[in-house]
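Appendix C reproduces, verbatim, an entry submitted by the partner laboratory led by Prof. M.T., so that reviewers can inspect both the input and the predicted structure.
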Amino acid sequence: MRTPTGPSLLAFLLVAPMALGAGACGGSDEPERRQAADPPPATTERDKPEEKMPTIRDGTLARRPPGEDGLRVAARQARIVAKDSAFGRVLFYANGQVVYVFENDGPNRSNCTSKDCVEAWPPVLTRQPPSAGDGVEARLLGTIRRRDGTLQVTYNGRPLYFYEHEAPGEIKCHNVDLHGGLWWVVTPRGVPAA
């Protein structure tokens, strides 16, 4: 094998690190991680009065297609559960996919609206009011209507998202700065995990 020299070596050195880190929050091309001084305050505002949430133990209505494409499909009724993780007890979707909140979102408002942001961080979508699984406070669940008309699940007024390149059970992007702000997994109290 011939060793690259001159301009070829320079091009190799510039392109190789980008190819290795594409599509993941971890690894050698990891985005900047920074500690949040204080997590944003929890909100208690609600768009509408509290509704009684149905309890569905098997998560049948929460099912969506597997894989990355399935993250972009609205469930008939999204289901959020709490499970143990390396960051303590945090929120997951019923299929075991962790959910995130975005530092730049306002109360009951998504600021992840650009094509690139929505592609990397698909919103957790539902067609009916979401249901609370084990360890989740039903009164903290809600929805907001996105610009495209879809309903995004919220928890304690914070819109919820998946990360596109994670499988169920994985947490790659907690406290990572992407698309102009930090992304965090969220506790059952409705605040970012430490």
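DSSP finds three helices and ten strands in the chain. Additional entries are available on request from the coordinating office.
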